[in-house]
Amino acid sequence: MSPTAPAAPSADPDSAARQSIRDGRTSLGIELGSTRIKACLIGPDPAAVLAVGAHEWENDFVDRLWTYPLEKVWIGIQDAYAKLAASVQERYGLEITALGALGVSGMMHGYLPFDEADQLLVPFRTWRNTNTGPAAAELSELFGVNIPLRWSVAHLYQAILDQEPHVEQTRFVTTLAGYVHWQLSDQRVLGVGDASGMFPIDSTTVDYDARMTEQFDDLVRDSAAHLRIRNLLPQVLGAGTPAGTLTAHGAALLDPSGSLESGAPLCPPEGDAGTGMVATGSVAPRTGNVSAGTSIFAMVVLQQPLVGVHPELDLVTTPAGDPVAMVHCNNGASEFGAWAGMFARFAEAAGTPMSSDKVFGTLLQEALNGEADAGGLVAYNYLAGEPITGIPQGRPMFLRTPESRLTLGNFVRSQLYGIFGTLSLGMRVLEKEGVAIDHMLAHGGLFRTAGIPQRMLADSLGTPVAVGETAAEGGAWGIAVLASYLEVAPNMDLASFLDQKVFAKAPFTIIGPEPTDVAAYQVFLERYRDGLAVMATAAEVL
Asked: Taking the model in full, what pTM does it have?
């Protein structure tokens, strides 16, 4: 073959992937979710996933606070990366030695305070904690915007109100993604989307709101005079901004085997809400997405500011800094997962063991045999408190009346409706504000079973719901895409990059709401709303 002759098409479909891995032209995304730490590797084509690895973990309830020990963070990250590397070795016959870029995503909000020696002062307080009510209420009134219970500034101010000793030593506060990024790159930065869950952001400056930072400093001048909020928080960066490089120490943290080289550029660390927006291509006005996991939340990109202040809505941003209304529910699919585990044990005890995917698939399929209003059954997935509905502590419940029709189909449908119940209440606030949405894009493990959860979400929202092939990869793929965006960011905005480079040929399945099922869901939702009084009582007496 002459030097100028075109290369013949390769018979090996993985040859391009192998070359990308050899050349270090890949992007790695790591996401620390509520129940899984996941690693996702993509090549020059960001729509194509080359390999994944995952590690299961669970939060701990210690001293009445939800937490994850930091040692479990690194055990999980290393395990997820090792499984990804093993997958690369098995499929492509290669060892990962270099990366083109990488990024870190994590559960948004929460509280990680460090002292001047970079030592963690109290165990990581996650988004799930609801002990910050007095602080959130006072800050919401002071700022004139809703400050949710889980935001970092609410945790910080609650610690000040409670006169916790560690406040005097606090010199730096960050999120889980910010912490991991800091350890990998030695940079104390944060993507604007994740930063908007720490402290209110001014989208015109893509930085913390200047007026509110001054108000906060004035508020704590007598009780914590040494604190200046800007000095405590990470530097804010928009998507596509270089955010440091992988240090030798960071490479060893990721890959203790020593195979991975340092030097790869990092994108700004982001929260799972922001990477969910990227993973669904929902960063432009009139788009929105739903992420369903341990928590469930919806993100809707706004065309204009909201008229009122609503406790059901968070005002956050896209990874590029555009304003977003977020409906965040503390409780997602975990309770349904617990029921599925019981059914799996029943199958095993009966001598017909089934895989987890088979159990979920069977239950979800049975939901189609249920009545459209779940037959009078009501399920609450409240493992933790739920600020949107004013329930302070978690008490999962399944309720029925003597007239309810207790069938397996109705039971499963009520569990699915229960996952979407609190979200529906929050989304109705956006409807009253006149916020228009063309369709919602859904992602997360719940949507691995095609069609059924998607259909019921569409009925619960009264809006078409789209699911793509990468839905189950979720935020780990989303942050890998943000890492790959670094290369083209100087010449292309994020929305154009997603439209033209990531989702141009991506197949989506869209399911619209059925009018009769929407009406039936409304019957369920009224029953669900009425039953919240039972939930409140249960939190008091049990």
From this structure: 0.83
